[in-house]
Amino acid sequence: MSETALPYDAIIIGAGAAGLMCAAVAGGRGRRILLIDHAEKPGKKILISGGGRCNFTNLYASHENYLSNNPHFCKSALSRFTAADFISMVEARGIAYHERSHGQLFCDDSARDIVDMLLTSCRDGSVEMRMNTEVQSVERNDDGFALSTNRGELQCRQLVVASGGLSLPKIGASPFGLKLAEQFGLPVVAPRAGLVPFAFTGSDMQALKELAGISLDVTVHCRGACFTEAMLFTHRGLSGPAILQISSIWQAGDDISIDLLPGRDIEGDLAAWQAERPQAQLSTALATMLPKRLVRLLCDSLIRDMKLEHMTQADRDKIAATLHNWRLKPAGTEGYRTAEVTLGGVDTAALSSKDMQVRGIPGLYFIGEVVDVSGHLGGFNFQWAWSSGHACGMAL
């Protein structure tokens, strides 16, 4: 049954991280806010993040942790609502949390704590929320914006689009926000999957498949960027934090370079082993540093196994170069199905960095993942959601 349209200061489309933060901030400032989403419950991506414990921010979040056609765009919002500001919210609610590697902060108990904190803030600000509400059309008029939904007509003075990106379609991701941006004539940076595992085909896939389950710390290079973290071999190819990070830099057709033993002097190690254990096989020596299955693959395809006493200086140089610069060419990524974030989105050239408002269309805002700002792995994308949502909420 159709519901009576009500006047709102703002309607926020999308009850994810950015939308919930924006609603909480604007509601707390006395604005009449309606938060709507086509899903059956709010914060679905928050709830499944971080293995259910939500990597809600990073102690070291700065503009340098973000990718965008305009790398300076995110500076304003991030500086006005920082990781420390969100941590203060978490602590004020008594949510227990802990730090993992690289400044990543996780809830001790459950991601539900973060969602409940935001919902409580929304209730404190008298935010109205309607789930299972699908927006069918949006029109701009003299009073603001008119929305047609499956639950009736809605009217608002200002409209905030916090509909997220295309990653994880199984939890309801859709191109709604990008299509709406195009409807209003805004430029869109072509979206693609980010923070996503690599897939391989043919002989490469067959070889890597034999290594499925092996994890080791590596340094991965591509296009001048590098990340030193864990890499995981999978049945399709490569995953793990180092791979997810570099996937956001990688472009189709690129090679990646993997240093399998970062920080080690392999040539020096080989020379020492040769002097100490000349009768040992190279594969036996390498297996003291690398998983045996990986050593077997390398010796079968790239490195000639031999007794150490037969190894020449040229051999040592080649082996060291191979282990420090193993080059592979992914066939592609696993796509939005497993991607943690969507790269690209509404071009920041169309938005004010201060409040996320569309230039030339007063009252229309885009925040969160739908915007062409994507963070590295480790809590940075949530921090962008909090910061952009806060900047918009303060402007409504």
In brief, what are we looking at here?
This protein is α+β, with helices and mostly antiparallel strands and 396 residues long.
Description:
The protein is an alpha+beta fold and 396 residues long. It has 2 domains: 7-192 and 342-395, FAD/NAD(P)-binding domain; 197-333, Translation factors (Elongation Factor Tu (Ef-tu), domain 3). Helix content is 31%, strand content 25%. It contains 13 helices and 21 strands. Helix 9 (266-276) crosses helix 12 (313-324).
Question: What is the average per-residue confidence, as pLDDT, rounded to a whole number?
Answer: 96
Quickly give the CATH architecture of the largest domain: 3-Layer(bba) Sandwich
Identify the CATH class of the largest domain: Alpha Beta
Distance between the termini: 30 Å
What sort of overall outline do the alpha carbons produce when their principal axes are compared? elongated
> Helical element count?
13
Structural class: alpha+beta
Topology of this structure?
Layout: E1 7-13, H1 17-28, E2 33-36, H2 44-48, E3 55-58, E4 66-67, H3 75-80, H4 83-92, E5 97-99, E6 104-107, H5 112-124, E7 128-130, E8 135-141, E9 144-149, E10 152-161, H6 176-183, E11 188-194, E12 198-199, H7 202-209, E13 215-222, E14 225-233, E15 237-239, H8 241-247, E16 256-259, H9 266-276, H10 282-286, H11 292-301, H12 313-324, E17 326-328, E18 332-333, E19 341-346, E20 364-366, E21 374-375, H13 380-395
Parallel strand pairs: 1-2, 1-10, 2-7, 10-20
Antiparallel strand pairs: 3-6, 4-21, 5-6, 8-9, 9-10, 11-19, 12-15, 12-18, 13-14, 13-16, 14-15, 16-17
Helix pairs in contact: 1-5, 1-13, 9-12
